[in-house]
Amino acid sequence: MSAARRSGSAGHNPGVLKQSSLLFLPVIMTGVVVYFSIWDAAFIVGGAPDLSETVSGGKTSQPLYVGATLEAWRNGSLSGRQLHAELGLKDAVIPAIYNCFSERYPLLDRSEGQPCFYLRTPIPVIGTNTVNNPAMLRRLVLSIDVPVQVIVIVVNTIPGEAGKQDELDMLAAIDELQELIGRSFFKVVRSGCNRGCAGGWNTIVHSTLDSPWWLIINDDAAFVPGALRTLYDYVSSNPNVAFYKLTAYQVFIITQRAVAEVGVFDENIWPAYVEDCDYDLRLKLSGVMVASRPPEFSNIHGDPESGSSSSLIDTRGGGHSGYGQRSKCSHSNNRIYYQKKWNLSVPGCGRQLEGMFQTPHGNPSRNLDSWTFDEEVRARSESCWEPSNRVDNWLREDAASYYAQVSVPGDQPASNWGQNLIRLQPEESELDTISEVQSSGGKDDAHCVSPFAEI
Ligand SMILES: *[C@@H]1O[C@H](CO)[C@@H](O)[C@H](O)[C@H]1NC(C)=O
Ligand SMILES: *[C@@H]1O[C@H](CO)[C@@H](O)[C@H](O)[C@H]1NC(C)=O
């Protein structure tokens, strides 16, 4: 499994490279002290290093000749990619390098003398879901100040014409990032619809299935300078940990072990909220080890100016009007699904409660990772986000009777909730049957899932 795939074996005491007195450019003096997790290396001006062997082979005391290299890069006679090659990074990139000499984003200032980037064993995958905030995505990508092998971006689209425009704007912004940083380091998955939080996270995992672990972050968050510098060492020195809540589910690491023993996220929970409660419960039931952040880790979240999270710009796309009500509608359905799945007397997040099932739907033939995509539940939540459906035209349906009809052999009926499934309707219409619900909204999105959900 994962251990075999990890290259190198980083220890706990990162060697700090000595700064050469020949580095005279003030911005380089204060901006670029290179740390290396495995080897002590001198920071010497002149000559061309071959660090690629060092990175994978573990030679000690390999000198790093980067002073002139950095200068040549800064004055434009060396490309960013050539700089990476000089740093021994053939199969990885440090995106923050491309922002070393630019203005920092608010709250991402480096402290006095703090390096602009850290030379480390590469993080295998950093992934994010995004919808319609290109500026935040750019901030996030350029905040990655350690090497990374693959950046996965799942582009979700919300319904309507404005949503299509949002998608084009987002793709243009991603194209710019790829041009700047190098196309080969990106995997961009264009959903053409909204796979939601769980579906997007699963897409990240599926797109890079062999990775030993995945660092997943909200697109409205970003890494504080230096926050990532110990992360690879932290993860590789704790091989028994299956899941890391760096900042709850805003920034987390899911490992191969978690995927094997707990599974991927349940995509019946859509588009957001409660996927984390369900996963937390499964983590607890599985007994795998969950760790929190290393002390160095921190991130910012949202827009420091408005103080709010703004990965969804609600002044732009279709489907955003009445955001709060629409979100309440689908969130409520998510909670009911979650209660039903575990026979929970209250939709308490991640809590083990009296009488709850020990396997999904109380079905002994289901493992913890088992979920069955239910198009009809999705269609109800889809109706919450269909722009032509009115936010005040709610139809409530007895959840117990719905779930009594639809099940997989062996699934137990749950007895414990008192709420209704909700759908929104256009104007004053009253639809009664499931097939009508499906065609009333989100027909494109009824199958908007990751490859894990496809049957
Ligand atoms: C840029 O820096 C390099 C390395 O110090 C130097 O050799 C080169 O002459 C410089 N080029 C320009 C255009 O200043
Ligand atoms: C669901 O939980 C309740 C207790 O809250 C319990 O009485 C009931 O038997 C459980 N249902 C099943 C099918 O186990």
UniProtKB/TrEMBL annotation:
The chain crosses the membrane at residues 21-39. InterPro entries: Nucleotide-diphossugar_trans (IPR029044). Keywords: Membrane, Transmembrane, Transmembrane helix. This is Glycosyltransferase 2-like domain-containing protein. It comes from Klebsormidium nitens (Green alga). Residues 297-327, 436-455 are annotated as: Disordered. It comes from the Eukaryota. The keyword Transcription does not apply. Gene3D superfamilies: Spore Coat Polysaccharide Biosynthesis Protein SpsA, Chain A.
